[in-house]
Design brief:
- The complex is a heterodimer of chains A (about 450) and B (about 270).
- Chain A has about 450 residues and is α+β, with helices and mostly antiparallel strands.
- Chain A is built from 15 helices and 15 strands.
- Chain A has a single domain, classed as Cytochrome-c3 Hydrogenase, chain B (Orthogonal Bundle).
- In chain A, helix 4 runs antiparallel to helix 6 and helix 4 packs antiparallel against helix 12.
- Chain B contains 13 helices and six strands.
- In chain B, strands 2-1-3-4-6 form a five-stranded parallel β-sheet, sandwiched between helices.
- In chain B, strand 3, helix 3 and strand 4 form a beta-alpha-beta unit.
- In chain B, helix 12 runs antiparallel to helix 13.
- Chain B starts with a strand and ends with a helix.
- Classes of the chains: A alpha+beta (about 450), B alpha/beta (about 270).
Chain lengths: ~450, ~270
């Protein structure tokens, strides 16, 4: 006669993620019965609020979806609007946009690698607690983050919700001197980031092997006088590990979003029904050949080979991407020539435009319909964390099943870690549901 | 003497204001020595039980559950400080307060029964007593540190009450309105950012909300009459991250009625 044994592992409020989410796992007789990542962050209805605003406003408005990756929102919005208006930004503006995006990757990846995720691997509740034993590591992270924020300020005018970004370009192009002043600190940072990759490679990684379809951008033209289109950041075609290769305008034909009861964020699926993942591992799987020499050499040195299928090793991919962002920022500053005009003139016209960029957490898709007066009649925003929710739940189920023998507290902590592998941005993921009114 | 305890709370928001605390790169570790960071989910798994000496509150109230939660937070907090435009004025999500709710509900495409939300996004002070409100979308790191330091020292935080205009003059920036005819909310917006936008050749868009007793009507009439900004664009300019701040809200409504009256006169 079997004796039924139930276990519930749950965390009511996940820590060290951006936003509010909970995690629940139900185990019966050593078998995972149910897992869910519950997102209860209040919906903010950005897509509804954008209707009736002008085509110049989405960069500032959608930045407010996320305080950690506002540049991603600004540039996906701009790509979509410029697509609708038929604008192709000149080379110097493309250099500045890519540089601004590097700055956001530096700021966001350092936040996640050092302050949000490393404490899991080293066994601390927080980076502040970790600093008592690993002072140099935490100080290095803070100094790297300060550089990312400084670069955001110089190009974007403000680190959180940059003020300098506009449809057509920028309000003010930075002086060559203002950017070159950052080169010595960037040289230090590149060394520091390389040491970080080596340190992260020694972390204890729980075993897990997942076979998601990976989806990432793949740029098709170089920026800053370079023929090689480089690693995906601010533009590119949409490619997937199942062979998909499409221009962004075909996105709605291949990707859909489902509304599930336990989440105020929609769940992303491919139209084939496949669970897919976006983010560092997807980018690395599909663009490892595009890494710059310092990042590619380092990946080889620490034995990181594409595709890397253990989600717990995403922190290592993120650290390699930090090297990539620093090295690319250095190159872009060196080739930057200040344009005579910081922006090209744009005129409204009726149309629909699509835009994608690689937010630090993965693909961020925007679509706008604009009328002849330049007013927005429809907006769709698909953030990376919403797309990753099914993959996160699949990882959680896979991980718990494989490690079901662990005691509850250990299983709980490592399950949280399985969610943090995706650096989920819950504030981002929860903004697009329409309104149900409860007047109490 | 034991260190004072600090708690950080999130309501409807983008995370940017609490992130500013982690962006105080040079001060973070010192701050963590001076105060006990007792509840700060963005930074740590460890949650010490309340009550807390100081609570920093980010975000606005948009759900029935959050309306309850803020009362609980107030009851376990000594000093309660709101950080940023969402907590202080309802944030960008307060645009729903002005919208025709019918129009929003018509956008339903999935399962609204899964979602619970209030008709309005409201500031923290509309629910519980607040001891200090820090402005900005987002807040500025030096101001955030000033507020925390002032509390530790038992004094009132020093934040400038004047308009962005004055900061612009102090930093020697060219007036974008006078020199380029660019519409700018600097004359009616509270200082604190150091006039970031005018320094980048851009008009202020009011992240810090209205200054004390702003002359909003005078500015908006001049933007309309002299710079040719139409009523709809003026209303949109005032309806962003501090749309529900009373002075901005009232002036935007006035532009709506002027536009409506003009339309009626022409038909």
């Amino acid at each position: 006669m079997s004796h039924s044994h139930d276990r519930d592992i749950s965390v009511a409020a996940l820590a060290r993620v951006e936003g509010e989410g909970a995690m629940r796992v139900r185990i019966r007789d050593d078998h995972v019965e149910h897992v869910s990542l519950e997102i209860y962050e209040p919906p903010r209805f950005f897509e509804a609020m954008l209707r009736g605003r002008t085509y110049l406003e989405p960069p500032d408005i959608t930045a407010r979806i996320c305080g950690i990756c506002p540049v991603a929102y600004q540039l996906s919005a701009i790509n979509a609007i410029e697509d609708a208006l038929g604008v192709d930004a000149p080379p110097a503006i493309r250099v500045l946009r890519r540089l601004l995006y590097c700055a956001e990757w530096i700021e966001s990846h350092v936040l996640h690698v050092f302050l949000l995720h490393a404490p899991d691997f080293l066994g601390y509740q927080s980076a502040i607690e970790m600093a008592a034993d690993h002072h140099e590591l935490v100080e290095r992270g803070l100094r790297l983050r300060k550089l990312g924020n400084r670069l955001l300020e110089v190009v974007g005018g403000r680190a959180i919700h940059p003020i300098n970004v506009r449809v057509g370009g920028f309000h003010r192009a930075p002086l060559v001197r203002e950017l070159r002043e950052l080169l010595p600190e960037l040289a230090w940072a590149l060394d520091a980031a390389q040491d970080t990759v080596r340190a992260v490679a020694t972390f204890p990684f729980p075993e897990l092997n997942q076979h998601h379809v990976y989806v990432a951008l793949r740029p098709d033209r170089g920026v800053g006088g370079q023929a090689d289109p480089g690693y995906p950041l601010e533009d590119g075609r949409v490619v997937a590990s199942d062979g998909l290769d499409i221009p962004v305008q075909q996105w709605p034909r291949w990707f859909r979003e489902d509304h599930v009861p336990h989440s105020t964020a929609l769940h992303g699926r491919m139209v084939t029904g496949a669970t897919y993942a976006v983010g560092p591992q997807a980018r690395f799987a599909l663009n490892a050949d595009r890494l710059s020499p310092p990042a590619a050499d380092l990946a080889a040195e620490v034995g990181l080979i594409a595709p890397e299928r253990n989600p717990f090793r995403s922190i290592l991919v993120r650290a390699v991407e930090l090297v990539e962002a620093l090295s690319e920022a250095q190159r872009l500053i060196e080739v930057y020539e200040r344009p005579d005009e910081p922006a090209v003139a744009v005129e409204p016209r009726e149309g629909v435009g699509h835009g994608v960029t690689e937010a630090p957490r993965g693909i961020l898709y925007h679509r706008y319909a604009i009328d002849a007066q330049g007013l927005i009649t429809d907006a769709v925003i698909t953030p990376p964390t919403a797309q990753n929710q099914p993959a996160m739940e699949a990882d959680l189920a896979g991980f718990v099943q494989r490690h079901v023998h662990l005691p509850d507290d250990e299983l709980q902590w490592q399950s949280e870690q399985a969610i943090r592998n995706y650096d989920p941005c819950i504030s981002c993921s929860t903004h697009f549901l329409t309104l149900e009114v409860d007047r109490g | 003497m034991s260190r004072p305890s600090l708690a950080v709370w999130k309501f409807a928001s983008c995370d940017g204001c609490q992130l500013s605390l982690l962006s105080a790169e040079d001060e973070l570790l010192t701050l963590a020595e001076e105060v006990h960071i007792a509840h700060f989910l963005e930074a740590t798994r460890e949650v010490a039980p309340g009550p807390y000496d100081v609570s920093l509150v980010e975000g606005s109230i948009t759900t029935p559950a959050d309306a309850e939660r803020i009362r609980h937070v107030r009851s376990i907090s000594g000093t309660l400080i709101t950080i940023g435009a969402c907590a202080t004025a309802g944030g960008i999500q307060a645009l729903r307060n002005l919208a025709d709710v019918e129009a929003y509900t018509n956008l339903v495409y999935a399962h609204p029964e899964y979602v619970s939300t209030l008709a309005e996004s409201t500031s923290i002070a509309q629910h519980v007593p607040v001891d200090f409100e820090l402005r900005g979308c987002p807040v500025e790191v030096p101001q955030l540190l000033e507020v925390v330091s002032a509390l530790l020292a038992g004094r009132k935080p020093v934040t400038p009450p004047h308009a962005v205009c004055l900061e612009c003059k102090l930093r020697g920036a060219v007036c974008v309105m006078v020199a380029h005819g660019t519409p700018c909310l600097g004359p009616i917006t509270q200082a604190g950012c150091g006039a970031r936008c005018p320094a980048f050749n851009r008009g202020c868009y009011g992240c810090f909300g209205p200054m004390e007793t702003p002359n909003t009507a005078s500015l908006s009439d001049r933007l309309h009459d002299e710079l040719g900004v139409d009523d709809d664009d003026l209303a949109r300019l005032l309806r962003t991250f501090n749309a529900d701040a009373p002075e901005f809200r009232a002036e935007a409504r006035r532009r709506d009625s002027i536009a409506a009256a003009r339309e009626e006169a022409t038909t």
